[in-house]
From TrEMBL:
Keywords: Membrane, Transmembrane, Transmembrane helix. It comes from the Eukaryota. The chain crosses the membrane at residues 6-31. The keyword Membrane applies. This is VWFA domain-containing protein. The lineage of its organism: Eukaryota, Metazoa, Ecdysozoa, Nematoda, Chromadorea.
Amino acid sequence: MFTNKFIITYLIIICTHGVLSSNVYFAIFFLDNSLYGSSSLGNQVSIINQFVLNKPNNDDTMSLTILSQGKTSFNTSFHPMVINDYGNFYTNLATIMSQEHAIGNISYFQLTSDVAAKSPFYNTKIYTQKPIIVYFIDSYLNRIEDTRKILNMINKFYDTEIRVLSIIFDEKKTSAATFLTKNKDFVNINMDSKETVKWLYKQYEIP
């Protein structure tokens, strides 16, 4: 028979290393498949892939919405994809990689507007209390002011801590990225995908 002391110690270990160590993450990624952004599309996809594969804990739960703007837009009907089916995840990434790029610059305005209309952030079981919205920026963005207005509306309407982040690939995009995030600290200049993924996860921890 197990002693009470053994049982209590065992339960403490389970709680400490099991249930309490798991987290729930949600993120929306906007990929830049403009004429110039298409040159970094492979890097953008790689960052999302590494983000999924390098969860802080194996027991963590993750849901994503992946959107891409090229000649046309790609979305999964704006339904969050729970990452327990890697086949579906990689099918979506492959579809994005084969998407025809825009012939010039892009705008994230319409996709962001659709996110505002079709993503019930009040459902914190899926979208969590601290979701992140990540914009890849590797080109000039059309209608960036209007896009920022939609983000302001989302933050005002929902009682959650939605953090807007940008990932860029050279310093020339810093100004646009900072305008979109409203904070230079929320902009990452990608030099190494693994470090960018670490930076993304840190954003969930910052109050």
